[in-house]
């Protein structure tokens, strides 16, 4: 049973930056947060100046000078071993903790059980898989998947690839989801034969379109991203689902960012085929690095992997507060190079990138790079 203090870092609490320290006790709850020179800014302990004493009295002190101290990151698109298909599923903690992720959604859940999810240290929810056969949604299979995971199921996942002829199966899924009070996540890709505009027109507020920067004849650039912008105005959540280079066309991505068409959430779509392989050390931190390279403001990047990502999943994650759980990530931006080349031969690379140096889940250190 130990107490901890992170000192010297620039703190992102989920919605704003502050300077100072962060202290949590052996109960895994944050006891002090913020600048001791500003009494009352972050709770009763800072009012008494106790945070400075806490740093000296803590059993362990982590020096985060020059680093970002953030809430545990939230990855809205992952694939976990035993929950997603064996082809893609990766052991949950390895898919998350080394990249600063403490909470995630499995997108395509069809195996395992609620018990397996409960046994994961990573906080989690799922989008249950909905098979499409002969251009018809298999709602019987969807119901079985929803029942497997109980209240961990927050939505349904449907794949829009070359096997889908039109929006009929998506309409079936959306109608079914509305009856159950669930979200819908649509995987669209460069193999889709349905336009992005038609796909988005079926979705409702709170639904998620993932792989928003895919290429091909039905990508968002076809109408100069008008359909994406209109969808956001209707409350549809636009997610990157980067997948390294597999579902991201870097020419489309760069053009969209130049025009200010930014994602609501940045996610990895990490699988056992991508982690530590694509780009060198692929995970959510590398996805963040791509947007940093393109000049997206750091505040926007951080919101897209903390508070906004949690909101997209309807969960109370992605923020730091006194009395709240000690789910914490420390990131450094610097000597973490990456290089990715998409299917069209476009390259994204940088000598700098985000690196996770410390991950804390429920007050317990679960990853440390040094």
Describe the structure.
With 370 residues, this protein is of the alpha/beta class. The chain folds into 2 domains: 4-69 and 322-368, Urease, subunit C, domain 1, CATH 2.30.40.10; 72-312, TIM Barrel. 25% of the residues lie in helices and 27% in strands. It contains 12 helices and 21 strands. The protein has helices at 44-47, 50-57, 92-96, 114-118, 139-149, 168-180, 196-202, 226-233, 250-258, 284-293, 298-303, 307-312; strands at 4-7, 10-12, 17-19, 21-24, 30-34, 60-63, 68-71, 73-78, 101-109, 123-129, 132-133, 136-137, 153-160, 183-188, 208-210, 237-238, 328-334, 338-341, 347-350, 353-361, 364-368. Strand 8, helix 3 (92-96) and strand 9 (101-109) form a beta-alpha-beta unit. Helix 7 (196-202) packs parallel to helix 8. The protein is globular and about 65 Å long. The protein starts with a strand and ends with a strand. The relative contact order is 0.16. Mean pLDDT is 91; it is low at 36-48.
Q: What is the CATH architecture assignment of the largest domain? A: Alpha-Beta Barrel
Assembly state: single chain
- Total number of distinct structural domains: 2
Uncertain stretches = 36-48
- Helix count? 12
Q: Order of strands side by side in the largest beta sheet?
A: 8-9-10-13-14-15-16
Structural class: alpha/beta
- Please give the share of residues in helix: 10-25%
Classified in CATH, the superfamily of the largest domain is: Metal-dependent hydrolases
Morphology call: globular
CATH topology of the largest domain: TIM Barrel
Strand content: 25-35%
CATH class of the largest domain: Alpha Beta
Described by strand count, sense and barrel closure, the largest sheet is: 7 strands, parallel
**Mean pLDDT, as a whole number?**
91
Strand tally is 21
Distance between the termini: 22 Å
- Rounded to the nearest angstrom, the radius of gyration is 21 Å
């Amino acid at each position: 049973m130990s107490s901890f203090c992170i000192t010297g870092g620039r703190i992102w609490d989920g919605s704003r930056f502050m300077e100072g320290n962060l202290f949590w006790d052996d109960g895994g709850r944050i006891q002090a947060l913020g600048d001791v020179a500003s009494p009352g800014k972050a709770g009763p302990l800072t009012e008494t100046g106790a945070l400075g004493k806490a740093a000296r009295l803590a059993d362990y002190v982590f020096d985060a000078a020059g680093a970002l101290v953030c809430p545990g990151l939230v990855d809205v698109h992952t694939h976990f071993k035993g929950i997603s298909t064996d082809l893609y599923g990766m052991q949950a903690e390895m898919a998350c903790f080394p990249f600063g992720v403490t909470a995630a959604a499995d997108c395509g859940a069809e195996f395992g059980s609620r018990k397996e999810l409960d046994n994961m240290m990573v906080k989690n929810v799922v989008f249950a898989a909905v098979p499409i056969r002969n251009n018809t949604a298999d709602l019987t299979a969807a119901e079985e998947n929803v029942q497997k995971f109980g209240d961990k199921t927050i939505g349904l996942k449907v794949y829009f690839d070359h096997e889908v002829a039109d929006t009929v199966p998506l309409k079936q899924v959306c109608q079914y989801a509305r009856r159950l009070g669930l979200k819908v996540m649509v995987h669209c890709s460069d193999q889709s034969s349905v336009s992005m505009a038609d796909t988005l027109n079926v979705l409702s507020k709170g639904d998620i379109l993932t792989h928003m920067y895919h290429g091909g004849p039905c990508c968002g650039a076809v109408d100069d991203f008008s359909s994406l912008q209109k969808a956001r105005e209707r409350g549809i959540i636009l997610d990157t689902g980067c997948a390294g280079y597999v579902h991201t066309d870097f020419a489309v991505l760069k053009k969209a960012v130049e025009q200010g068409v930014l994602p609501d959430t940045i996610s990895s779509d990490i699988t056992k085929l991508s982690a530590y392989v694509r780009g060198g050390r692929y995970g959510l931190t590398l996805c963040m690095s791509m947007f940093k390279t393109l000049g997206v403001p750091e505040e926007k990047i951080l919101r897209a992997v903390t508070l906004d990502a949690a909101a997209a999943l309807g969960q109370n994650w992605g923020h730091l507060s006194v009395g709240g759980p000690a789910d914490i990530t420390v990131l450094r931006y610097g000597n973490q190079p990456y290089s990715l080349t998409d299917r069209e031969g476009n390259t994204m690379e940088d000598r700098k990138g985000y690196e996770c140096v410390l991950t804390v889940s429920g007050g317990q250190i679960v990853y440390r790079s040094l």
